[in-house]
Specification:
The protein is of the alpha+beta class. It contains 9 helices and 12 strands. Helix content is 43%, strand content 25%. Helix 5 crosses helix 6.
Length: 344
């Protein structure tokens, strides 16, 4: 990169601008790093990703850079010289110059903690929607194939047209439900609380996640007992359910079974998501829910953090229990809607 451009960036940029080579070594960082993080640029030269970001965030970042994706925006915590974490909107791009690959990053400080958190949540929702879209596209092929076949039969003048019309309507309904659920999780959270059925929300989430489970030959079974109505924001609790069940699918081996069990007690309802994955060691268990801490390749670690926050805002909690023999139980607990009318 020409020196004159780097000098201009140094003088005028309010964001932190950084350039790394393909090996992850820092080649340039703007003087704004001193104002924002209280470090001198010279302290960073030669450093790798992991020395600037948390190790989990660096792993996540490098994973996506290795996918050769361009203009990927994420939210990261970067440690200030005083050891506090500051949140940044980070845009990373991959460029090729002199037959070499470089990564250029722009880091904009998010001064409002609530804005930072909201930005992280929306970023994670977008990631999840993107991950699920491929599976749903695959799942939609089956009803589309059926529709095409029935149309050809109708064009050929087949009898019993009413029967085929009804089947076609059912197939269209399936496509509509899957598309609606995918759009639902892509939208920003609302703050509209009312009395909702946990069973109804689980049904919606399983429709959305069944495609991901089918791709891995994983079966999702679920049972419910007793009262299940909670006073909540439907969009938020469904997001929490998506995060937990999606994690269970990713932790379970091919041909496995995930159980979702709903039990109600005097004042609360418990949703147990039971996977068949490896038992989570205690040292990892204690860190689950930390931003960017993850055991999955390319994961963000934000899903469980968001889930815990959603449940806390609803006076609930998430407990993670290891099975003695195999697998783990992610137990979501929410208070029953005992003191709210139907209209909230």
């Amino acid at each position: 990169m020409p020196t004159v451009i780097l000098e201009w960036i140094d003088e005028h940029s309010q964001e932190i601008i950084a350039v790394w080579n393909q090996e992850g070594n820092l080649l340039f960082i703007s003087k704004s790093v001193t104002k924002l993080l209280d470090y001198q640029p010279s302290e960073f030269f030669g450093m790798k990703w992991k020395h600037i970001f948390s190790s989990e965030a660096a792993t996540y970042l490098l994973h996506h850079m290795n996918q050769k994706l361009h203009q990927k925006t994420h939210q990261f915590a970067i440690t200030h010289a005083n050891k506090t974490n500051l949140f940044f909107d980070s845009t990373i791009d991959q460029v090729i110059g002199d037959e070499r690959v470089y990564f250029i990053g722009a880091f904009k400080h998010i001064t409002d903690p609530e804005e930072a958190e909201k930005s992280m949540v929306e970023s994670e929702k977008t990631v999840i929607a993107s991950q699920l879209s491929a599976g749903i596209a695959h799942e939609i092929r089956n009803p589309l194939t059926s529709l095409k076949g029935f149309l050809q039969l109708l064009q050929a003048g087949v009898e019993q047209k009413e029967v085929y019309y009804n089947i076609m309507a059912d197939e269209i309904d399936k496509i509509e439900v899957m598309a609606s659920e995918l759009l639902f999780i892509s939208k920003p959270f609302t703050e509209n609380r009312q009395v909702e059925s946990i069973q109804s929300m689980i049904k919606d989430v399983i429709i959305l996640l069944r495609s991901l489970a089918n791709m891995r030959d994983i079966k999702i079974d679920w049972t419910a007992n007793g009262k299940d109505e909670v006073y909540c924001d439907r969009s938020q609790v469904k997001q929490a359910l998506i995060n937990i069940i999606k994690n269970a699918i990713e932790a379970t081996d091919k041909d496995g079974v995930i159980q979702v069990v709903v039990n109600s007690f005097e004042n609360e309802v418990q949703v147990d998501v039971i996977d068949e994955g490896p038992i989570i060691p205690k040292e990892i268990l204690d860190r689950l829910g930390e931003p960017y801490f993850t055991t999955k390749s390319g994961g963000t670690g934000l899903g469980l953090m968001i889930t815990k926050k959603i449940l806390a805002q609803h006076e609930g909690q998430l407990n993670i229990i290891t099975n003695k023999e195999n697998g783990n139980i992610f137990r979501m607990i929410l208070p029953l809607a005992l003191n709210h009318g139907d209209d909230g």
